[in-house]
Amino acid sequence: MNNTAPTVTFLENLRSATAQSHISLEKLPVSESIINSEVTKEQYTLYLSLMQDVVKDAEENIFPLLKNVVTDLQERSKNHLLINDLTVLGYHKKEEIKPLSSALNNHSVAFALGIMYVIEGSSLGGRVILKNITDALGYTPENGASYFGGYGNKTGSHWKNFLAALTLFEAENNCAEDIIAGADFAFNAINLHFTKNTSK
Fold first, then answer.
1. pLDDT tens per residue, range 22-81
2. Phi and psi for 107 in degrees, rounded to 5?
3. Nearest to residue 51, comparing CAs of 85, 23, 94, 15?
4. Which residue among 10, 34, 64, 181 is least enclosed by CB atoms within 10 Å?
């Protein structure tokens, strides 16, 4: 019993400490557009192109720090899914933006785990978004919506496995503040990236 209490408390603290930045990101027009039943192909394409900047940057410049913490790191790659979906949509990126790593210098493994918490958490919401994209636009995990298809029926177990690795690392290293800081940074950095590239 005693071993489980700190884990629950840490995850609760992580969620509550990042709740405001999480909600702020979800309330952006570009975020709300993809859960709207009247979402357009253009709105969907814009969202994916912005997320591809985030995911590519994370996978190339932040997640390599985590190879000894998250053992199935390679299986969690999503950049190729975004590229595939954008290709189906007929979109080809002209410039490379690094919304996360460009604002960081010598970040810790714990901080990187916090960032991954945000990226992995989006896979859960992606299952709900997938239904809307399929209903509204006709795209499926096999054609144009592979990113939101995520891990398919393994999405729940992948999330639980990640949380297990996250909480174990925190318990062994007493680094809750760094993980929370990384997650909060990620929510805010994605918010800034979305805002800068959608405001006219």
1. 999 999 999 999 999 999 999 999 999 999 999 999 999 999 999 999 999 999 999 999
2. -75, 155
3. 85
4. 64
Cβ atoms of 133 and 44 closer than 8 Å: yes
Measured CA to CA, the distance from residue 33 to residue 149 in angstroms comes to 18
Handedness of CA 145, 18, 177, 165 (dihedral sign): negative
Q: Which amino acid is located at 64 in the chain? A: P
pTM (two decimals): 0.93
**Side chain identity at residue 26, one-letter code:** E
According to DSSP, the residues that pair with 144 across neighbouring strands are 140
Q: Which helix (H) or strand (E) holds 62?
A: none
| The two structure tokens encoding residue 11 | 């995850």
How far is 132 from 76, CA to CA, in rounded Å? 23
Look at residue 140 and give its three-state secondary structure: strand
